[in-house]
User: What shape does this take?
Amino acid sequence: MYPVVPGHEITGLVSKVGSNVTRFKVGDRVGVGCLAATCLECECCKEGEENYCDQVQFVYNGIFWDGSITYGGYSRMLVADHRYVVHMPESLPMDSAAPLLCAGITVFCPLKDNGMVESRGKRIGVIGLGGLGHLAVKFGKAFGHHVTVISTSPSKEKEARERLGADDFLVSTDPKQMQARRRTLDFVLDTVSATHFLGPYLDLLKAKGTLVIVGAPDGPMSLPSFPLIFGKRVVKGSMIGSIKETQEMMDLCGKHNITCDVEVVTTDQINEAFERLARADVKYRFVIDIADAGKKINNNSS
Assistant: This one.
């Protein structure tokens, strides 16, 4: 649909609630991620996995309950169904916590689904060190695991080890490094959005290890059969989580003080931010301060 107005990692304060809303009150710190509406009747919705509903509608370029088009969070206010809203921990800044509502939950769910939240001491690999990858490293370390960052960029090693606390770093284009780590990892999370060959990463997994794809490349990925067959390995995909899972993640982030590394920009800096984003010149998310724009409008009109 056109025009498309995006914006889906949204935090703010409740300004008004409907008469049937009981979980939220005016003044609450809240967040809205990707979900605007689901059917509430299918198997996924009934089992608490509404993010996989076949009729899911997102907060931008979707169709809301009343038939209106959703225009995301690049606005001074947002009307949301209370069933798709979460509480934000008081201990977390609203700006650096905002990307947790999509990037955070995207990497949290595979970790949870594969037993990495409850267990300790596993060896996990994170392919890619960007908006998703740096949060995966933070989660992995907070949950007590040995974390290896796997990247095509040797220059990211210092960032991975010293700033994010990664235990190991592999340059994926170095055959010697990759060969030396064969069959050492229990779990690999692939956050890379560019199309790439999965074979070398599968070889890093122990027998019965799992690789989860969350980076969503737009082209087909090459998946060799022999590393799967001879290692009894699993490759699967994952997206964002349910609202229940998102709230669980938020509560854990509050407990472990996990936030996204962000740069806050105002509305008059958006074009510059897009240009920098195209050059991969951001660590690791731009967050737009819409409230600041509202203050300027009010000041100019008074």
